[in-house]
Design brief:
Blueprint (H helix, E strand, L loop, with lengths): L18 E2 H8 L3 H10 L6 E3 L3 E4 L1 H16 L4 H39 L1
Antiparallel strand pairs: 1-3, 2-3
Length: 118
């Protein structure tokens, strides 16, 4: 996932597995209530919820939030436009992953064919 260009001024994401909503708010320079709102608007954003409905975000969630922030605050997208852009990029990622799997499968089949011809 690509991060928006302004995100260079945001703090480096530490090498932790889970982040609280307060930590993510600081890492992404947004308020916690904005993060909760974005969870409703962007279906891709689904933090793990544990005891007492406490949210725990993973690294990919933080990267997605930074991408959303860049689209909304820096590039001037509406919520709907940002949602479409992210969905479109997700579809492109799915296609490229599928193409990679197909190429890998073809390579393996060619190797098997070479072995069988011996």
């Amino acid at each position: 996932m690509l991060e928006a260009s302004n995100n260079n001024e945001l703090p480096v994401i530490p090498g932790k597995r889970y982040f609280t909503i307060g930590e993510v708010a600081e890492l992404c320079d947004v308020k916690p209530h904005v993060l909760r709102y974005w969870e409703q608007e962007f279906p891709q954003l689904k933090p793990v919820k544990r005891r007492g409905n406490r949210r725990y975000y993973q690294r990919h969630d933080v990267l997605l939030i930074r991408q959303i922030r860049g689209l909304l605050y820096d590039e001037g997208f509406t919520i709907g436009g940002a949602r479409q852009r992210i969905e479109c990029e997700g579809a492109k990622d799915d296609v490229s992953q599928s193409q990679q799997i197909i190429r890998q499968t073809l390579t393996e089949l060619e190797e098997l064919l070479t072995l069988l011809k011996r």
